[in-house]
Write a sequence for this structure.
């Protein structure tokens, strides 16, 4: 599907076609909530022969501990991030950097031009040659920290996705510049039209409204995503999660890995 859309010449036609796919996507009737719980078991998965966990820390709980914050990534050709040309967006950090550090170590690189492009300059004398930069973008407005660089390749941005309704500090709620949508964030960072090799969204219960916003306003962006990891909180949002599953399928996504949250205090 992505190749089909990439062949289109007119960007507005591309957007229109993808929006039509979303608007006409058949959503099966959720007549039994158990269907939503069994989605991972009943859905045909993409048989990734080479998938690996990245990141994660052991969190103590009572007399035991559990792994939290790990993410699965498929390394098959066509899906694996190319260390020479790759881009990662990681929404939701909460000072737990294990996944982002792992992607940093992996060495994701993204091709960028100098300020001429970012400022809207025309190709010519204002344009510099291509440069290679290792970049993983990490976003979290709840950490109340200014933008900074971590390690060699990680760029922290004090930004969150629109629809965020988590534990954003009250003093930050009036600062609309801390919230944005993926389209505006990509534009701001000079990534319009780029493929996002891995998009992680783990924003404490606000993954659902954030994804719904993308489906509503800019679903074409999801056809530029190679792998998507979302921590979807199903509590009282069964149909909304069910709808997201099927909208992703209509856009060509296939399930690679699915598991229940291992956080004992909040899952039962």
């Amino acid at each position: 599907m992505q190749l089909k859309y990439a062949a289109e010449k007119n960007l507005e036609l591309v957007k229109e076609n993808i929006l039509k796919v979303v608007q006409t996507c058949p959503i099966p009737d959720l007549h039994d909530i158990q269907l939503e719980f069994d989605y991972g078991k009943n859905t045909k998965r993409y048989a990734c022969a080479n998938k690996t966990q990245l990141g994660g820390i052991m969190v103590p709980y009572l007399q035991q501990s559990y792994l939290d914050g790990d993410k699965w990534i498929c390394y098959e050709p066509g899906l694996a991030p190319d260390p020479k040309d790759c881009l990662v967006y990681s929404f939701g950090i909460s000072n737990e950097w294990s996944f982002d550090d792992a992607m940093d170590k992996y060495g994701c690189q993204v091709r960028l031009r100098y300020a001429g492009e970012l400022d809207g300059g025309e190709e010519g004398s204002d344009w510099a040659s291509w440069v290679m930069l290792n970049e993983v973008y990490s976003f979290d407005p709840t950490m109340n920290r200014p933008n900074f660089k971590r390690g060699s390749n990680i760029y922290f941005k004090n930004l969150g996705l629109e629809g965020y309704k988590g534990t954003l500090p009250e003093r930050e709620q009036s600062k609309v510049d801390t919230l944005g949508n993926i389209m505006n964030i990509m534009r701001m960072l000079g990534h319009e039209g780029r493929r996002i090799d891995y998009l992680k969204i783990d924003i404490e219960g606000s993954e659902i409204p954030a994804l719904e916003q993308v489906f509503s306003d800019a679903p074409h962006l999801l056809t530029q995503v190679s792998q998507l990891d979302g921590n979807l909180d199903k509590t009282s949002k069964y149909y909304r999660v069910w709808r997201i599953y099927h909208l992703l399928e209509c856009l060509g996504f296939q399930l690679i890995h699915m598991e229940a949250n291992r956080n004992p205090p909040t899952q039962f």
